[in-house]
Amino acid sequence: MHRVALITSGGDGAGINSMIEMLARYEGIDLYGFHDGYDGILVNQPIHLTKTHCANHSLDGAHFLRTARSKLPFTKDGRQKIIQSLVEQEFECLIVCGGSGSQIAAKQIHEEGMNTLFIPMTVDNDVIGTDYTIGYDTALNHILNIIANIQNTATNMPGRIFMVEVLGGNVGNLALESALAGGCDLAIIPEYSSNREQIAKKVQAKLREKQSLIITCSESAYDSKDYQAGDQGVSFSIADSIEHLTGIRVRKTVVGFYIRAGHPSNRDAIIASKLGYFTAATILSKDFGKMIAIKKDAVITVDYKELDFSASTTNQENIDIAKNLNLLNS
Ligand SMILES: Nc1ncnc2c1ncn2[C@@H]1O[C@H](COP(=O)(O)OP(=O)(O)O)[C@@H](O)[C@H]1O
Ligand SMILES: O=P(O)(O)OC[C@H]1O[C@](O)(COP(=O)(O)O)[C@@H](O)[C@@H]1O
After folding, report:
1. Could you report the per-residue pLDDT of 156-209, keeping only the tens digit for each?
2. Which of 6, 193, 217, 223 could make an S-S bridge to 235, C-beta 3.0–4.6 Å?
3. pLDDT of residue 224
4. Which CATH number covers residue 27?
5. What rounded mean pLDDT belongs to the chain?
6. Do 254 and 114 belong to one domain?
């Protein structure tokens, strides 16, 4: 039997239970989970994630394990404490499910003495070395439901400008993809200039072509560096500039944290299940120091050493399409 520890770290992502449940039911894996991310390894008792414990909850929006952000992995001393605790509890490996920050910590902990595997999970879809992160599709579906309703009211009461602000951290994937999928008129994303006047002029020009406009906006589209992940409300200041120039009131919706939970979409559940399945196989072959990732719709393993942390994680195809359609704040 392989005695394995698992945590979720950083923002939650719908679908992760499917991944955990798949691991729990795999022959030869003895799975334990800690609540509260990296901190939890030191302060919480491990929960035995058996097949029975996980049964019938794989599609729950509430995770088997609570997730958290933690100061510990930022220092070598903190990482050593994590490693020591896992060694004392005789774990062979730590599985970390999380986003880009959790990935850095998983790599460091692996290099400094404890086997790790990393599973990409975040609504931002901004993890180096994978095309996909668990939770992204469910989040997009939530946003699209909102955009669909806004399209209805835009049809019913024409002549308006709507602004939909979405999460995404420092990357514009959610705002960009939902704008493309939802037929929106502009996606304001942090990868391009957030100059308020320029954006307002672009909106004014678009009003000559269309009666109502729907704009998506990333939470991080600040014109200064004064942004912390999770800050909400930047769309209000952009809307001010648009109102000033066009004389039209902007109707705002801040989607916020609603998109991070709920039962997972099929895409999230099946990708998570497959990642769980291949993670189990990777554990059995003791092939540690890897991320179990998605490339071109297939599951692959990526050695931490191959990760290029300078690469962009914004979907390039979406950028190209949006540029050609003049949908960006560029
Ligand atoms: N540069 C880093 N070095 C070491 N650990 C990190 C680093 N960045 C993040 N972490 C760890 O991963 C956790 C989650 O990272 P965060 O960026 O908040 O979310 P996510 O992993 O979803 O991107 C942090 O709370 C911290 O414990
Ligand atoms: O939940 P918090 O701590 O307020 O963080 C908000 C951030 O979490 C996210 O929802 C997900 O980000 P991570 O997956 O990187 O943690 C971001 O879109 C958002 O900026």
Report:
1. 999 999 999 999 999 999 999 999 999 999 999 999 988 999 999 999 999 999
2. 217
3. 76
4. 3.40.50.450
5. 96
6. no
Q: Choose the residue to mutate in 16, 39, 74, 126 for probing ligand 1, maximizing ligand atoms within 8 Å of C-beta.
A: 74
Q: Is the pLDDT of residue 57 over 80?
A: yes
Kindly state the helix (H) or strand (E) to which residue 214 belongs, with its residue range. strand 213-218
Closest residue by Cα to atom 1, ligand 2, is 11
Taking residues 82-88, what's their average pLDDT?
98
Same domain? For 296 and 242 the reply is no
| 165 occurs within a structural domain | yes
Q: Would residue 143 count as lying in a domain?
A: yes
Residue nearest to ligand 1 atom 27, measured at CA: 70
Question: What are the residue ranges of helices labelled H in 89-219?
Answer: 100-111, 136-156, 173-181, 196-206
- On whether residue 37 sits in a domain, the answer given is yes
For ligand 2, mutation pick of 36, 63, 123 (most atoms within 8 Å of CB) = 123
The dihedral over CA atoms of 142, 143, 144, 149, expressed in degrees to the nearest 10, equals 100
CB contact burial 230-263 (16+ within 10 A = b; e otherwise): eeeebbeebbebbeebbebebbbbbbeeebbbbe
Task: Record the tokens describing residue 122, joined without a space.
Answer: 């975040």
pLDDT-derived band at 226, boundaries 50, 70, 90: confident
pLDDT at 107: 98
Distance 275 CA to ligand 2 centre (A): 22
Ligand 1 pocket, residue 78 CB under 6 Å: no
281 and 162 within one domain? no
Taking the CA of residue 260 as reference, the ligand 2 atom at the shortest distance is 10
Co-location of 119 and 198 in the same domain = no
For residue 231, the CA-to-ligand 2 centroid distance in Å is 9
Number of domains in the chain: 2
Tell me if 323 is assigned to some domain.
no
Smallest CA separation from ligand 2 atom 18, residue? 168
Residues 255/262, Cβ–Cβ less than 8 Å: no
Q: Which domain holds residue 100?
A: 2-135+264-306
ipTM score here? 0.99
CATH code for position 222: 3.40.50.460
Q: What's residue 330's pLDDT?
A: 84
pLDDT at 194: 86
